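User: Okay, second chain of the day. Same drill as before: sequence in, structure tokens out.
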Amino acid sequence: MKVAIIGSRGYPYVYSGYETLIKHLAEGLVEKGVEVTVYCHKGLFSERPKTVNGVNLAYIPTVETKSLSQLLHSLLSFIHLIFNKPDVLFVVNAANGPYGLISKLFRIPTAINVDGLEWLRPKWKGLGAKYFKWSAKQATKFYDLIINDSEEMKRVYQETFHVDSEVIAYGGIIRKSKAPELIEKWELKSNDYYLIVGRLIPDNNADLIIEGFINSGSSKKLVVVGDVPYTDEYASKIKGISDERLVFTGYVTNQNELAELYHQAFGYFHGHEYGGTNPTMLKALAYGSAILALNTAFNQEMLNGGEFGRFFEKNAKSVTHLVNSMEANASEMAMLKQNSPKGITKKYTWEYVVEQYYTAFQKLRRN
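Assistant: Same drill. Structure tokens below.
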């Protein structure tokens, strides 16, 4: 079976949840004897080998702009694909919804992972939001299989677009602390700080978490890992907040350092608002973090209604109250840390994720 993958930045490039999915999926499919081709953004790769780890790579150019780079890259990749037809095409990102018409016209069985509710994200106000919702609707018309990463997102697509979808989550890999001294580069001590990990964008709600933390009676630090790769007023405002307890690390690309930041934190704040199965949350579970999450249906699903974390509402006062109550009950935080790896159930293992995709692709090929 030949499978082509379009819509990510490429392989083995890892920048976001999509690339992490593509990495594990491509490698897992190759182990099962599948011939996999991943379409890559040519400009992101200074070296361009034809094959890495058994995964075939096609380098397609694009214009590197925030709004158009992925759309143009996908379009050119679809055109290339017409002359190199696979047995099955796998597409990520609902923005690629309209291109399903191409694979439909050329009778290429195609599945798409539509990910989160992009049209609700503040960064896509106006025309951008309208495009994402329209594009998601086109995906439900043109693609042979819609894949969502959570039961709640499946429900949203049923209610919004009246279409059924298959649920396949993302995976997490349980890891224990290996080098706690790595956090010392930021002058941090184990269990003496809270952690936020994610892009500094409005729908991740770092601003209200920081405000709530500052207003608490905590003497611990709050470490903020992440940034945005462009000049942005919201991100700049957050990084400009002055409090001796705040530590801004920017991006942490060393995965061992990032893992230790999770391991050694007193608590991990998860403010992500729109999306299904969140890879950052999976890391927090797999790395044994005490999770304090925004109360959304998606986070409730991942934390099994509170079995693997605690929740705060979307306001600073709720964060303040949670910080004060958790610090008054350190034994509960310790229990959460011990319990959270149990949240990596079968559906959140990469082995099971790959197996589900493999089965789905086989069905598409036969049909």
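The chain has two domains: 2-171+349-366, 180-345.

User: Thanks, on to the next one.
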